[in-house]
Please model this.
Amino acid sequence: IQYLFPYSSYMAEQISYTNFVRDIRSGIMPKTGYVTLIASYIYSLLPLATPSSIISFSMYNKILFIVTFILLKKYSYLNTNYLITLLLFPSLILYSSLGLREMLVLLQMILWLLCILNRKYILSLVLAFFFLYTKIYNFYFLGLFTILHFVYYNSVFFITKKFLTAIIILFLFTIFFLN
Model:
């Protein structure tokens, strides 16, 4: 899929991620934006060969993509029909074939969702905290959702579910109409 784009500058971040991972593995400290640097450090920790080009770096994402869904299938979080649908989903195929941090973010979100579904709230808050380093606006949404999920399903503070739902809907309408 990499060859479908006319120039490597079409998504220019691919070049920087590839170069930064190569530099980090060579012992050179790159000077760049905070989020790009953190994602490059995470990618450099993967036990894979050092990328020599954008295409070889995009294989990191393809491997993350395939291993994630194999593990989801192995631990019975996905059945075969959903797995095939997700593996053939065009956006997932596209983003897993690029040298960007999107598959890293997807992996974090899947782990966070599994923690929420298993009601491991402390671990899900820790995973949401890691979004401060990869995608900051996901931190606000996932952190708030974790807290609301805990309050809603554990009846903390003796708030009824109907009352809490009404407050959330009122809050969302207020935000919507203020913008």
